[in-house]
Amino acid sequence: xxxxEGLLYGLELVFTPELLLAxxxxxAAGTAIGVLPGLGPVAGAAxxxxxxxxxxxxxxxxxxxxxxxxxxxxxxxxxxxxxMPGEAASVVTAIDGYExxxxxxxxxxxxxxxVGSFIAGTxxxxxxxxxxxxxxxxxxxxxxxxxxxxxGGGLLVLARVAGGSTASGYFPMVLGVLLGTVGIEQVTGxxxxxxxxxxxxxxxxxxxxxxxxxxxxxxxxxxxDPERATRIKSVKLRELLPSREEWRRAWAPWGRGSLIGxxxxxxxxPSATLSSFAAYRTEQAVSKNRDRLGKGAVEGVAGPEAxxxxxxxxxxxxxxxxxxxxSATFALMLAxxxxxxxxxxxxxxxxxxxxxxxxIASMYVANVMLLILNLPLVGVWVSVxxxxxxxxxxxxxxxxxxxxxxTRFSPLDVWVLVIMGALGYLLRKLDFALxxxxxxxxxxxxxxxxxxxxxxxxxxxxxxxxxxxxSIGIWSVAVLVxxxxxxxxxxxxxxxxxxxxxxxxxxxx
Amino acid sequence: xxxxxxxxxxxxxxxxxxxxxxGRIIAGTLGLLLGVWFSWYTWxxxxxxxxxxxxxxxxxxFVGLLMIAVSLLTIAEAWFTDQVxxxxxxxxxxxxxxxxxxxVALILLITFYxxxxxxxxxxxxxxxxxxxxxxxxxxxxxVYGTAIGVGISAFFVELLGVRLPMGLLGPTGLIGGLFW
Lengths: 509, 180
What we know:
heterodimer, A: mainly alpha, 22 helices, about 70% helix, about 0% strand, globular, B: mainly alpha, 2 domains, 7 helices
């Protein structure tokens, strides 16, 4: 089946009442989570994850895709209406989005955001559809050396790019990899670091770790945060329509943002956040109305919003074709797939075309769902912020406990949730990057697997890992990013602009 | 970046190590201890195999050594540079009380999660949390806490069919046993 037939097949599979309901619930829950400051895509996906285990594989994955896209959109909504970005990728949207709101153009800003996300999603889906099978074909040529370079090198790059200072990324990354070594060793069946606890034999589950690090820690941070006096602006349905000029000015930034976002999505790191800054930077450089940027320009909303959505979809390429999650949310998606008995990678497209194509189609359906849901219901989403924190926070905690317990029906996981909550709280206070810890926990066992396979094949010869041009190339890039801190800083400023320095790129996407 | 003397004061005489840097040095030291213990434990207890057939200990030992290295890096970065600096704003006064009480409530929730069961534990937790975070009105807290606790539990247990501990309400529980 060629890519177009595949996508049509995926759409056919997705258009069932059950899967559309899953997309609806995911998009709605994701948007609600996204509008709450602090609770971003990772916490959202982690909270929803255990719920998906009770569903068929496709429905579960579609729900997570909906949460991801929804939380991005929800975060941008509060950026525009209240200058309160719900998550890191929405920070740049607040610059011009909030200025538009102050000028009485909140409705058009939200419409441009929603339509831009939809267009970017569409373009990125087409590119993913075309690229994934090609990357999967190439991946058949990969052996343990190339996979080790991709997983190990990718993790090193992610930790360096996402972490702020060098230690901020690497310290939690190694901690995550270390946690990943606990449990039965896959090849020889040796019990490692279980200390007689039967429940530890299966290792640390990702759900309590992710929910604890992001969800519980964040709730405690919100609790101690001073009350925000939020004067919420209401937007009426008829005020949503942009003017003809606003439509005209949005097209080019949508296109540019979509492509920039997709490209960033292919790379390890906080792609949605970085791409939104890169898109803003591009508009500053090439837009005809660049002098209006920062003062409520349509371009400042259209470009970054298209970019962060393009990146979200673009990240599907490494996940589906290579089995590599390059962000914390996709690490959770990988975990969901593994629980459902699906192993992403080059074989997925041949062995489970239904899952492969329905997941791609599901991202598209999630986008359509958001367009249908979010504009008319913008008032509902904003009213989520009116729910008293005293009701919301403990409610989320109860859901987090249910999520942690129900993953493996293990009381130990509930304790892990709380311990990780405390650890996440402290690491956040100390400005460490948590995304690299979660990806480290997920990729650690893969790195070990490829290392062991390579050593078996080469009879213990470590030079085997640098035998191929591909692995040398990947390691070279990783080393360059690791050691070239000042160079990277310069490149980052060139590409994504100095505004990104103002934002901590401890990222959730 | 500003070079600091290891004694912790700059030439200008102001305190050199702010609380964030001190915190990172403590984090690095704990990481260092973890790395040393982990490497030692692996070396002593986990088989290493042969060069042709490496055992289960090879990768963890590498990770343990890496933990030592990044911990030293964390300590050095905090000690010698101000790349990450500032004061850590821990809650004080009323906010500290709120955070601590909520932490205690959460720990009590998970301690008694299985014996009390999902419904009872979450209702009690919600009521307690509403007292800590919300109003002092008994009636309001009990009504809201019960409604939200039961609502969330019923959504997962009854609607989604998630198997959660039933505790007191289960067939062998103190209350459930009377009705099952």
